[in-house]
Amino acid sequence: MINFHSCFVCEKTSADFILFWTYIYTRRLHVSFQRLKALEALHHIADLGNLKIQETYLPAFLDAIVDSSENIRLTARNILKLAKLPDLKLVNKCVDGVLKSLEMYPQDEPAILSALFHFGQNHTKFLVSMVKRFCEKLETATGNKSEFNSRQVSASLMLIISAPLSDKQSITSIPPLAFSYSLAMLGKFSCGLDDMMDQDTLLAYLSHCAILSASSGTEFNKGDIFFHAYRHSNEDLSGNPVLLRNKDIPAESKHMGSKAEVENRNQALKSVNHIVLKIKAAWLLSQSGCSKEAFRALRACKQELQTANSFISNGALEFMCQYVHVIELLAQVWPHFEYSRHTSTCKSVELELLMEEVEIKLMEIRCRITGLSTEVSLEMELVIFGCLLRLYKFENCCRLSCKKKLASTVSQLELHHEQQCTKPSDFLTETKKSLQEIGSNGNINCCRLLDLIKKYNCFSPEQFTLSGDLQCISAELEVPGNGPYSPISFVAGLPVAIPCEIMLLNVPRDTRLWLRIFRSDETCQFVYLDQNLYSGDERKKRFMFSAVTYMTPRALVFTLRVSIGMECLFEDICDRERRYGPKYPVAYLSKEREVHISSVSRT
Question: How far is the C-alpha of 50 from the C-alpha of 160, rounded, in Å?
């Protein structure tokens, strides 16, 4: 029996051996074991860099790619990873053979994707031709869900996105949509590339490539700070958890009893950081026009947060949930800014409602989450982004107040960076520069506004430390014994007292709380909660409070809705002429409770 591995490896010998292997493979007279041994010898030659596959031998190799033996297919793919074909014709034939194998053996998809990734890296000089070949398929995929999810498209994408890692190919030759679509197939791709990089690294790589491909066209190289960070696990940008500096670790964490608890906490932090990267991917997808995929990714983030590890504080989880919600709203807003500035009245109303909801959510984050450090810059940049969107889309409507809020937020964020000794983002620097150029009375022109909007980056990993100091201010409100069949009695025209059982969590002593009582006809009344009711130092405070309302209509029965809110004293908007109720905007801490009230019968 021939010992295939004993062949003397040189160019002539390897060429003769390929002829011999082609002969024994095409004759089909030998058992699978011998064919496998022949392939393993070829792999050994390829591993030493001496394998040259010519067109004459390619059919036999492609037969091995689609062979019924799993081991033969595996060895053939390993050879493919090392192969270097001399011309585009052979490259296309080889790719066609691999795609045929994928259709015949869908269970091999992860291994085939891995082989294509390596194959693409070895043939970057043919990248432009490969991109042209598959662009039509990618364009078709935009409107066809089944086509978008097909194995053919995923294989094509894997081949295309492999090239930038080689350091030889300009990333601008690849359309940004290729990276955006790849983000939607992250799970599938990470399974295929698990021998090269983890899912966090792949996600970071695709996100970064999408940004570079759509903007500067900078040559991608392994010295790039972003990619470099993912190769060094001790960096904050890495897919590993952003571990807190010792001074940031809460006292209780320093006294954790077991190593297992520390490990669980670190694992929980890593999972949250993974969600942060997914949020970035979703934002890139929405900007690329893949709204459905973006919303699907954001829904997945919400589901992951709902099952997050208990070692992540409630404050950190609440912050992340609110942040995902804001990005989800912005993803709905974004299509309004892709085309003309002027939209129909119906679209304008829809956009206005979305923008108002974004602003309310941002106010709630700032008001209800205490202990924010680096996350402050992220929240305030979102406020600045919202102001720029308003100035661009709504023209003269509320322009003065919006510009005032923009300038104020820029100043506050600049001061925050000075206090934290951190570097402001390019987005903040450019926005400040634009405000300085126009002065106090001028307006930022539309082109400049659009440039600033496009410069905004909703994500920077170092903005998420998610320390244990994050706490969420919340409240619970109950009306004991009240319901549709046990209403509170009242006399029409006279005040009525509503007995409220209130629980406050993490509410500071200097907070100004209000009870909001709302009637179905849009009538609203605010009742102030005296600070003496919740002046203790404990995190959780419970007390009873009777709220007197004068909103008793001449009706037999009616329903009120009651909730608790806190004034956001940092907001610039202040209604000082208002005699009763809060003078600043209110962020609500509890769910609304229905209060059923019935008139006293006269018998």
Answer: 26
Of 47 and 540, the one with more pLDDT: 540
pLDDT at res. 11: 46
Predicted confidence at residue 581, as pLDDT, reads: 83
Q: Give, to the nearest 10 degrees, the angle between helix 88-104 and helix 127-143.
A: 40
- Do residues 311 and 268 touch, judged by C-beta distance below 8 A? yes
Overall number of domains in the chain: 2
pLDDT band at 246 (very low <50, low <70, confident <90, very high): very low
DSSP 454-471: HH--S--GGG----TT-E
On the question of pLDDT at 489 being above 80, the answer is yes
* Token couple for 547: 């709220």
DSSP for 136-203 reads HHHHHHHH-HHHHTSHHHHHHHHHHHTGGGGSSS-GGGS-HHHHHHHHHTHHHHHHHTTTT--HHHHH
Tokens (6 digits) for 144: 């066809």
Report the sign of the C-alpha dihedral through residues 554, 555, 556, 558, in that order: negative
- Residue 153 CB neighbours (<10 A): 19
Separation in Å, CA 504 to CA 24, 477, 539, 566, 588: 80, 9, 8, 11, 12
Residue 116 burial (CB count, 10 A): 27
d(CA 180, CA 231): 22
- Nearest Cα neighbor of 9 from 37, 40, 39, 49 is 49
Asked if residue 503 and residue 366 are part of one domain, the reply reads no
Do 456 and 518 belong together in one domain? no
Instruction: Give the residue, 249 or 477, on which the prediction is more confident.
Output: 477
Specify whether the CB–CB gap between 121 and 163 falls below 8 A: yes
Domain of 504: which CATH number? 2.20.130.20
From 420, 442, 463, give the residue that closes a domain: 463
List strand residue ranges (DSSP E) for 91-237, in order. none
**Domain hosting residue 369, numbered range:** 305-463
Percent of the chain at pLDDT exceeding 90? 11
H or E element: which one contains 515? strand 513-519
User: Which of 463, 483, 506 is the last residue in one of the domains?
Assistant: 463
- The one-letter code for the residue type at 389 is L
Contacts 24+ apart (CB under 8 A), 295-304: 295/328, 295/331, 296/184, 297/183, 297/184, 298/324, 298/327, 298/328, 298/331, 301/275, 304/271, 304/275
CB 570 within 8 A of CB 460: no
* Alpha-carbon gap, residue 275 to 474, rounded angstroms: 24
- Mapping DSSP to helix (H, G, I), strand (E, B) and coil, where does residue 102 land? helix
Rg over CA atoms, the chain: 31
Torsion of CA 30, 32, 33, 37, to 10 degrees: 90
Segment 404-420 mean pLDDT: 86
Among 523, 592, 595, which Cα is nearest to 553's? 523
Mean residue pLDDT of the chain comes to 74
CA distance linking residue 62 with residue 8, whole number of Å: 25
Evaluate the CA torsion angle 353, 355, 359, 361 in order and state its sign.
positive
